[in-house]
Amino acid sequence: MTTLAVLEQRDGVLRKISHEVVTAAQRLGGSVDAVVCAAAPVQGADQAAKFGADTIVTLANPAFAKYAPEAWAQALAERAKQGGYRTIVFAASATGKDLAPRVAAKLGVGVAADLTDLATDGAGLMVTRPVYAGKALLRVKVMSQPAVLSLRPNVFTPVERPKAGAAETVAVNVPAGRVTVREIKAAPAGTLDVAEAQIIISGGRGLKEPANFKVLEELARAFGGHAAVGASRAVVDAGWRAHADQVGQTGKTVSPSLYIAVGISGAIQHLAGMRTSKVIVAINKDKDAPIFKVADYGVVGDLFEIVPRLTEEIRKLHG
Amino acid sequence: MKIAVCIKRVPDSETRVKIAADGKSLDEAGVKFVLNPYDEFAVEEALRRKEKAAAGEVVVICLGPAAAQESIRTALAMGADRGVLLQADKIPADPFETAKVIAAELKGTAWDLILFGRMAIDDYNTQVGPLVAELLGLPCVTAVSHLDIDGANGVAEREIEGGIEVVDFPLPAVLTADKGLNEPRYPALKGIMAAKKKPLEVKPVQPGAGTLEIVALTPPPDRKEGKIVGEGAAAVGELVRLLREEAKVL
Fold first, then answer.
1. I need a surface site. Which of A159, A164, B1, B128 has the fewest CB within 10 A?
2. Domain ranges of chain B
């Protein structure tokens, strides 16, 4: 049985989430064919071999430099059909969430989406997906042929398992789509997306006013580019922070290694969005705040004293 | 502008999830259901587009149980013109089956726009919109947080990791609405009264079983009990030590 692992590139460079996709595809047993849509050979694509890809195919088309939803979907669906793959694995990234259903529909199936676990056993392919923003886990038996899966980012830790990784570039000829990406407006340099960050420092109403988020931004910078600043729904709804930063049931569900909740009381919809974080730290002046119930480590007190001290300590570590 | 908005009835985000006796579904006793928050952005956008064009119709379509009429009435109270409930006791676990039922209803009408919320906050599938677009052969942009439409051409912005994708597309199209697209209006009393008299057609449907079978719904694993490290800035040293030596995340 061979699994098709769909890698992602941006600006011709392999995105790290691709390592997670190959790692998870490995877990299904059998061999792994990795595939990426691009205009030219992708920098870092050979790394897919390090994580277990037996082959790495670049589906090349001059129009594939930027995400081309319809053309990529067609190229991938054709590839999936030709290869007779039983399982196709995507990342549930911004691109994967858009692309996987398009490919799935062309193959006549739906997506088992945003998975946090997967396994094959005697019963077939079993997957786990958080629902109600992580307040419950759904175990699903996937009987579709093929099975189209997407994986929640930051959950499947890449494991090195070197394989041959025979690389091949195949020119594909598919019609240009009707939906075209004109440009990508990049976020300011150094800004990490909360959905992908390994460390998240989130702020809530306890910050008192928007300008005070600079305290959290300084702490994020002290982590040397591995940290993103998130926000609770209350402060996003108040217009203090961008919608993209919201963590919770009506925002992003995140699973970083370290989540630091600052001045967030811990509404149930917020807890749902961050409870799968590996380690949770809460800093809050109210010792009875619900956030302390899910936190591994809590510090009670004035965040304006605690956070700058923490920033100093982290700087020392990274200095 | 003839606009369809496809909505879903979902448990409110403050719901405490209890598992039903079958071990596979939510115990709905005492659960407050609402119009899916992302669908509010879709309804609002449809209303604004119709108002701007000063002509057209906004039709709300919902797959769900009889009680989902309430969610349709919420959208009608916001200002939508009429509703269609595709009535089924259970929403399929396989989003492709949901998409087929909705696509069948949409087919044959010359919609200018078909709007969805980016995702439903209960099952987090994030795919019925693009599946329907594929089934209808229409262009699709997902997770739209900004939208400009000029005649038959649209420009949408969608958030990606570390940036914003600016996307051109032609109408008619399927779009899924993200937070940030607009500020949904609250239904005014007048709207709520008017909504009671707006047409709401109920059509029984029988979605297929699909190929995703729910085996179990379980509570998430409990987090092991944490500890209060201390109070104030004096506790920071110990916090950092624990993060390094015990949690090993620094």
1. A164
2. 2-204, 222-250
ipTM score of complex:
0.95
Which CATH number is associated with domain A2-171?
3.40.50.620
Question: Residue A286 CA to chain centroid, in angstroms?
Answer: 32
Higher model confidence: residue A196 or residue B23? B23
Give contacts of A 224-243 with B, CB under 8 A.
236, 242-243
Taking Cα atoms as reference points, which of B222, B207, B202, B190 lies closest to residue B102? B207
**What local confidence, expressed as pLDDT, does residue A1 receive?**
78
The CA distance from A169 to the nearest CA of chain B, in Å, is 27
Q: CATH fold of B2-204, please? A: Rossmann fold (3.40.50)
Interface test with A, best of B96, B119, B241 (most A CBs within 10 A): B96
Confidence of residue B129 (pLDDT cuts 50, 70, 90): very high
- Nearest CA-CA partner of B114 in B97, B128, B96: B128
Task: Tell which CATH classification among 3.40.50.10490, 2.60.40.10, 2.10.50.10, 3.40.50.1220 matches the domain A199-318.
Answer: 3.40.50.1220
